[in-house]
Write a structure and sequence with these properties.
This protein is an alpha/beta fold and about 260 residues long. It has a single domain, classed as 3-Layer(aba) Sandwich (Rossmann fold), CATH 3.40.50.720. It is about 50% helix and about 15% strand. Strands 3-2-1-4-5-6-7 form a seven-stranded parallel β-sheet, sandwiched between helices. Helix 1 crosses helix 8. The longest helix has 29 residues. The radius of gyration is 18 Å and the shape is globular. The two termini are about 30 Å apart.
Length: about 260
């Protein structure tokens, strides 16, 4: 299926590893001109080379930290300078630390808000005028299944990512009038380094090995395994494409059937 993404301009935030890099790779494979970013120069260089090798399309790599407003401004400015517009925005950031309520002070809460909510707000704020002007745009926010089913020991993620869902739903009504569609993807456990970290934390909490913790988790997923980053990237690519012409304001679990709710 041709997703109609050839030469579309896509910013994929926090894309030097994990889910962000998987999305950037999927979009580039579909012919999009992809802009990636990350905080660390070497990671950015390595990711750029890996994406070009896998897709034949070198991404535009911009060193930027999505928790810093001035870095977001520069990321958008470099994109527009090189390509003239933004067609697609994938708002993404790493997850906040694991832990429970009594483990976090105000400063840690503020950092989580900057990381997962305000980075999304600032990216969307800069992309919307361009998308409205051209009467076409796709925004996908990478959140977590915790927005539908809170997870033990992930209080910050449970709380702050839910605010992103509220943001997206609230602005989806106005954006739809200009053919700008916004959706959230709520992954459960995808085989990335972030999940390795969470499994290490869970293993410590339960007094078991990381492999045992991962096997136990996979056993709770009806499909019987963790998702691959490539599977995740393919779903996001569809939502960013011309083939998605009607779906907006939704939050889609990417969970292998693990979520038990009906809504």
């Amino acid at each position: 299926m041709d997703l109609g993404l050839k030469n579309r301009i896509a910013i994929v935030a926090a894309s030097t590893k994990g889910l962000g890099k998987a999305v950037a790779t999927s979009l580039a494979l579909e012919g999009a001109n992809v802009v990636i970013n990350g905080r660390h120069k070497q990671n950015l260089h390595d990711a750029s080379e890996e994406i070009e090798k896998a897709t034949g399309k070198p991404p535009l790599a911009v060193q930027a930290d999505v928790t810093q407003p001035e870095d977001i401004e520069r990321l958008v400015e470099e994109t527009v300078k090189n390509y003239g517009t933004i067609d697609i925005l994938v708002a993404n950031a790493g997850g906040p630390p694991a832990g429970n309520f009594d483990e976090f002070d105000d400063e840690q809460w503020y950092r989580a808000v900057d990381l997962n909510l305000m980075s999304t707000v600032r990216l969307i704020r800069r992309a919307i005028p361009l998308m409205k002007k051209q009467k076409w745009g796709r925004i996908v926010n990478i959140v977590s299944l915790t927005v539908k089913q809170p997870a033990d020991n992930l209080l910050l993620s449970n709380s702050v990512r839910a605010a992103v869902v509220g943001l997206a739903k609230s602005i989806s009504f106005d954006l739809a009038r200009d053919n700008v569609l916004i959706n959230n993807i709520a992954p459960y456990y995808v085989a990335t380094k972030r999940i390795d970290y969470l499994m290490e934390q869970e293993a410590i909490r339960q007094g078991i090995t990381r492999d045992e913790a991962t096997k136990s988790l996979a056993g709770k997923i009806p499909i019987g395994r963790l998702a691959t980053p490539e599977e995740f990237g393919n779903l996001v690519a569809f939502l960013c494409s011309e083939k998605n012409s009607y779906l907006t304001g939704t939050t889609i679990p990417f969970d292998g059937g693990a979520y038990r709710g009906m809504l």
